[in-house]
Structures are given as C-alpha cells and as structure tokens.
Queue: 2 jobs
Job 1
Amino acid sequence: METLTSSQNPKIKRILSLRKKRERDQTNLFLIEGYRELLSAVDNGFSIKSLFVCPEFFLKTNEKALVDKIQKKTCDIYKLPEYLFEKISYRDRPDGLLAIAKQESLSLEKIKDLCKEGVYFVVAESIEKPGNLGTILRSSDAAGAAFLVVCDPCTDIFNPNVVRASVGTLFTVPVVVCDKNEFFSFCKKEKITICAATPAAKKIFTQTDLSGKIALCMGTEQYGLSDQFLQKADLLVKIPMMGKADSLNVASATTLMLYETLRQRQG
Amino acid sequence: METLTSSQNPKIKRILSLRKKRERDQTNLFLIEGYRELLSAVDNGFSIKSLFVCPEFFLKTNEKALVDKIQKKTCDIYKLPEYLFEKISYRDRPDGLLAIAKQESLSLEKIKDLCKEGVYFVVAESIEKPGNLGTILRSSDAAGAAFLVVCDPCTDIFNPNVVRASVGTLFTVPVVVCDKNEFFSFCKKEKITICAATPAAKKIFTQTDLSGKIALCMGTEQYGLSDQFLQKADLLVKIPMMGKADSLNVASATTLMLYETLRQRQG
C-alpha cells in the first residue's frame, strides 16, 4: 500500500477534479465516499479503480474486511494522513474511505425483463438538486420499485451529493438515463401506464387505481412535469395540499406516490 | 434608504455572525433570505428588525410591494451593491432580499387550544440535519398538521438551512420546542395518542388505526426514537422496507406518516 503525503500529487488532483461534471463525463469515473456506500457498491458489482484510506478515521465497523475484498479485485490502494484525507473528503466527518469507481448505467432495452406484471417505478424528469435525486433513489429502494428512470437530467446521477443522499441505494436500484421520447415509446411497447403527479389533476392519488404496470412521473422542483409528460400521461393524480404554502419537497412527494402504489398492492 | 458598501461595516458583520447558533441564542434574532420566505414571515406576523436589499438581483416578482410593507413597520432598510450582497447571501442565486428577524416560538401551554378532536401533528426528536427539519415543516404544512413539536433539538429551528428548506412554512406552522418529559405530560393531560414510528414495530402504518388525537413521533436520522419515546408510546408502527438498504430519509418517512393520517380522515 503506497502512502501519499502531498496535495500536489496527481492522484489527489484527480480526485478533486472528479467533483466536476465535465471531468466525470469525460472519464466515465466517479467518487464514492464512506463505508456504507462503498460496501453497497462492491456488493452490487461496481468496479473500483482506486481506493484511498485513512485508518485514523475508521469507525471500526469492518473496514479491514472491505479493504481486503476490494484489494483482491486488482485495485490500487493508497494510504493518506489525516490532513490530506480531509482535503479530498466531501464530508464533515470523514470515515476514512474514498474510492474512484467506474460509472454504470443501463438502457431501457436492458431493463425490459424487469417490466413484469405489476411493476412500478419512478420517472424523475429534470430534477435539479442532487440531494433530491439521492433521496428518490433511497425511497425507490425502500418501497421496492424495480428501477429508476431519469429523463433529461439537470444533475448527473454520479454527482457526489447524489451518492451521499442515496446512502448506497444508487448501487442497489437499477438506473436508466434517457430522453423523454425514448421513454414514451418504451411505455407504449411495454404497456406501462404513465401516471403523472401534478397539482392540476382532479383525482387524489390515494383514491386512484394504481394497479398494473405503472410509471410514477415526477417533475422539477420549481415547475413540475413538462407539458409533453402531461400530454402523454394516461393518468393524472394530485397530492392534497391542506396548508398555506401549497408545496411539498419533490422527494417527499415521490415517496408518497411510491408507498401508495405499494399499499394498493399489499392492502 | 442607507447604502452600505464595506464588508467591514458592523451591520454586515452582524448578519454573518447570525449564521452561528450561539449568536442566534444570545440575541434571539435570526436570518430570513428570499422573497417567498420573507413574504411568508411578514404575512404571519414575524417581526422584521432590518432588511437588506440588492435591487439588481430582484426577480421582479413583486419586491417593491413587499419592501414597502416591511418599511411601514418601522424597520431599517439598507441597500447593498451586488458584491456585498453575495457576501451575506446563503444562496447560490440570491434574489436580493435578506432580513434580520425576531425569533418566535410557542410553549405547549399556548397550543392547547389547537388540540381539538382529530388533531394530528409530528413530534421530531433530536433531528440533526437542518434540511430534514425544514422538509418536515413543509410536509406538516402540506398535510394540514396543526403544529410541530421539536423535542430536545440538535439543530435550532432558526438555522438558515431550516428556513431555506422550509420554503416559508417555518412561519405558517406553529412550532413548540420542549423536552420530552414535558411533552409526555402534555399528551396525558390532553388525551393524545403517542404513536412512534420504529422498524421494531409489528403493525404496518397503513394497516393501523390512526384516528383520534395523535402525535406522530419520529426519531433521529441515525438511531431513530429514544427508548423513552418507545416506552411511552401507545402505538408502535412501522413503514414496510422492501429494498436492500432498509432505510428511508427521516423527512420522507415523516411525510408518509402525515399523509396516511390524512388519508384515514378523508378516505
């Protein structure tokens, strides 16, 4: 295990550069920080290229076993002193593990087999905030959604804040990134109901039949779904707004749609 | 309207110091940034002490009317150039409005009258992240909860990130900060059912009767509710976890509890 001590080391600079979207796009690499996140990535077959550790920060969960597991897969491992690890860390309280990994995402073609009877999943159109996208992944995992479709993204799914907010579910939930027209054709072919959540709807989500194959479509934080989505939708539903502010966080609204779909399947 | 140009001006330093909890506690003041947030604060009777504006950043919503309204209430108004406003702003894209306001919060005694038949509300125990507390306020407003109880807080409700994530609902939802024992006595006296959300519960939240006067208790991000809450609870419910990660964001989980309570009241 090589030790790095200088912030001028090209490997350190490489890590910092991967905080930028452009660099992630060009290299097809991204950053994973934290024990829980890294364990999830490894267990779900993501390829780790380099691992940076600072044992002084370990929380003594089971770091050694994880590091050994990663080392077996011919990945470079570097040891860093605390001051240098703090520099590369994205967190207030780093836990001493940060990796560079290869991006993986799927095409609609590849998730066709997951579209069985009763399949449900979220479609996130142009979500802006990485934290919201991460939380949507977390809720998709928890509610048992088959996958997540991200249409015309404003934030890439490998943004460090998506990884963080998803607490590892970026690696457990299959993610497809595509444009909306591809998605509409896919739904037609696979006979999937396009359900749009919009304040303009007449039907309340808990009083609407959400059975069958269903895509739960959610729009941007500020403007909601685009007109194209609203026009293509087979079903429009709204979440009741009983307060003064008439607004829910988009990840909260998505969680409601997911768990209502689950409730209707489980009783 | 006085113009400020120096970052060394004591008024500018005052603003920056109010980002710190200690200063907020000592002065009983806090910061409100943004048109939407400030409008909500003014409309709901919060007292604005000083207002700082940068007209170059105005989004031309209706800033002039709002500034006039605030000015009538004998508040000091200062004009800042862009470079200086960017320094005091908490946002990536400031909209030219930032105020210092007086903190207001309620006691359990004062919300007694809101505890009518069928009342429902969230109790947030020791939530750590300001963003989660803000999102819980937003969902409480949307789902029509009567108020929010914050027990033994780790983050104060006047943290700038709570204000931001609440998008103005900090001013529409009555908030009580108290310790848990006060809260337990209050529930006993007011005959309120204490419902605790915990993965250890046997009953699923959507299959449990949540009618009557009910307190929906949610615990910390990492450890959930304390043992004292679990022991005092009249009702334990869980949210089904169908995924690999077994975890939901606390604000998402709170939103589910709130809307299930509403669904059971509305059908």
Note: The first strand of chain A starts at residue 2 and ends at 3.
Job 2
Amino acid sequence: MPRVFRPVDIEQEEKELRKDYFDRHSPHIICSDEVQKGEKFKVKVKVGEEYSHPDDFDHYITYVQLWNRETFIAQAVFSPGSLGNKPNHVEVDFYIVAPEVSMNLSAMCNCIKHGLWMSDPKTVKVI
Amino acid sequence: MPRVFRPVDIEQEEKELRKDYFDRHSPHIICSDEVQKGEKFKVKVKVGEEYSHPDDFDHYITYVQLWNRETFIAQAVFSPGSLGNKPNHVEVDFYIVAPEVSMNLSAMCNCIKHGLWMSDPKTVKVI
Amino acid sequence: MPRVFRPVDIEQEEKELRKDYFDRHSPHIICSDEVQKGEKFKVKVKVGEEYSHPDDFDHYITYVQLWNRETFIAQAVFSPGSLGNKPNHVEVDFYIVAPEVSMNLSAMCNCIKHGLWMSDPKTVKVI
Amino acid sequence: MPRVFRPVDIEQEEKELRKDYFDRHSPHIICSDEVQKGEKFKVKVKVGEEYSHPDDFDHYITYVQLWNRETFIAQAVFSPGSLGNKPNHVEVDFYIVAPEVSMNLSAMCNCIKHGLWMSDPKTVKVI
C-alpha cells in the first residue's frame, strides 16, 4: 500500500518550508455540520488552505476522492493545466443525499510527485 | 466508437415519455458567459433539467466529463447510492482558470444502462 | 462534444509525418474473433501499431476506454512516466465474460495534447 | 481516511466464511521478480485467489489501482456486469517500463460494499 500522508499539527513544525509542504497537499472537506435526512447537500473538497499547489505537468493534483467511512462516494480526475499552470487550490463540489445515519466524510488526493494525502475526517450529523 | 446521444429538439417529439428519456440523460453546462483571463471560475455540470435520473445500482450516471474543445479537463466518477437511490440530478462543480482564448466547453455523461450523452456546447468568452 | 478522431486510410495520406501522427494515436483492440458464451477472455487495447507515442508529462495517453456497443465496460487511467518517459505503446489487458449475444467492441483513448481517438470496431462472435 | 483492509494470515482465522471474505477481496500482484532497466513488462493485478468475488450491480469491484511505493501508476475502473454478473476474479494487466531502481509495487481495490483493500507488497528487482 502506498504510504498515506496526513495533515499534522503544523504549528509544531519548526520550518516554514515544511508547513507549506504539508498545507498545500492536504485536502479539506467543507460542508454543513448538520443536514436533514434525504436532503441533497454540497460537499466541497479543496486542496490547501494558506498555500496553493502547483499546476505543472510534472507536479499537479491528479485526483481527489470522497469517502463516507469505508464507502467510496466519488472521484474527480484532473488534467494538468486546467488551473492555468499556476499555483492554485484544486476544488471540486460533489452533491450527495444525506442517508439515514450520520456521516463521517473523508477526502484523499494524489499529487503526481508527492503521493497520497488524506483530510481530517468531517462528521456530518443527520437530523 | 460508442454511439453518442445528444439532446434533440424535444419539443418536436410526440411522446412525453421520450421527452423524459432525453431530458433526464442530458448533461448541461452552467457557468458564466464571460470570464476574465486568468480568473478561476466555477463550471457546474448537471444532468437533466425537468426530469431527474434514477440512482439505482443497475441504472445510474456512472461518470461526467468536462472538455474544452478537444482538450479533456476533468472527469468525476460516481458510486450508485450517493443520491440516496432515488431519482435526482447528478451535479458536480469543477473550478478552472480561464486561458488566453475563449472556450468552447462541452460535457459528456454515461448512464450505465443507456450509454453516452453529450451536452450542448457552451461558449465562454475570455475578456 | 469533443471532436473524435479516427484512423483513416492512411495509405492515402501524402505525408509520412501525418501517417505517424494518425498511427501513434489510434487505439486497437486485439482479442479472439470468437468466444464461447460465458467464457472469460482477454481484450488487449494497444495504442499505435508501427509508431509509438511519447510518454512525456505534457504529452502522453491519459486514459483508455473499452466499450461494447453503447455499453461502457472499463477505463484505465495512466500516470505519465510509467513507460519511462520514452515513446512506447500504451497497452492494457481487460478480462471480460462473453455475454449471450455477439459483441461489437470499440476502444477510445485520450492524448493530453491531441484529444480523443477511437479504434476500428471489433466484432466478437459468441458461440 | 477510509479504513484499509489487508490480507491477514487467514490460516489463523477460525471460520471458513471469514477466510472466504478476506480472500475474495484481496488484490494480488503477479509479475516477474526481476526485470531489466528500461524493459517493458506486464503487471497483472488479480482479485482473490481461491475464492471469487460477486459481479452484481450492488456488489462488485469498482476499481483497481497500481502503485510503486508512493507513486500512482494506473487505475482501472470497471462496470458491473462485465464478468457476466457471476462470481469471478477481476483481472487487469498493466504494462510498465522498469525504472533505474528496484520497485516496490502494491495494488488496491475497492468493493462497492466492503470498501478498500490492499495487496501484499511485491518487490521487483531491477538489474
């Protein structure tokens, strides 16, 4: 299995360079904390918070996946250059329907150069 | 090559059933008509306008692709059930950066049962 | 819809350069002409016959799809560099089980620079 | 991150049912132990050894990925029914060119019902 990287507590990292490296590779899940059963809602996956990732042919985010616990929901595959070959935040919005029970969403993304990265999990309460 | 279906002028179709069939399989591109060079903007691909498509295990939209003329931009692959196994509109928002010249976007989607469908093209003027 | 290119009768092309261009982008289906109902068999998709395609970061075959008439069977997505960043033939073998009726297989492939290409169809008789 | 399952020493499992469950979900890498630098060689990924996995619409192997250490090589996405809707071994052959240094290949596969599974790693010596 490929090694999977995750956002660590980068406040504790000594070097700014390293903070940049971790931040710009980490996917984030942005969505409501609470949704109604059967409601369709948007789940944004965004890569990087403060730092943006290159969009070069030999260094770009190739794909993003969205999971609910062990269940695969969706994957978006990108072509390099769609962000103008300049650093930016890869973003994609998926739309899903809330099931009967609360969700534990997570995202993964792959950098062609630096491998597979995971988000922090995001709990979505279904009411 | 698989046959590719496209939204025809369904006003001319005689049967409502057929209108339903065409409408709920056709992808649509929803985005600004005009963007600034280098601007990041959202491109929504949505399947169906008036009629929604099933989300059954043996009948769902498996993927959506976004193209700019002959250039592949992105593809989203879905798992059945992410829309609650009930009819709905598959939706995904991609974010791209406007290049130097105007764009001619198109979308394609695949129904596991009824094959490959294309959108009308959408011109995006780059200013 | 993106324009779809197909292998033309390149014997009629005047320039060798153009023959090269068409040949190295065209996917081919290589499999048995005849299979037994319910038999699992190999379907190779290979890109290019005489001429091989670059495997550069900004010029490579991003994906290959296999179809049976209007039905999507499988898609393989590649990373640039897996062929050593030197020209070669992209190849992938899928394994499928022969259905009750004869098949009409086709393949498509996408070059990141030169768009979407289709194979000649391949009839597989099911006995 | 989704939980990742891996083949355990199923000899130690008490129940045959459980052995079946682990075996039929586990991807395996089948290729040469030793290849020459710059040589193109076949890497088969096969799911299950003794036990085969269903190919039902609500229970099938949706995709297989091949990795070399942290580097993504290729992914094959399947449609349910391509194995005749009967239990079988998902198989796909990728072709890659041996780099300068030895490889540590691994495969992952996703079952639509039972999540993400990983293979044992496979060392390929480059001579």
Note: Strands of chain C lie at 4-5, 27-30, 34-35, 40-47, 61-68, 71-78, 91-97, 103-111, 115-118, 122-126.
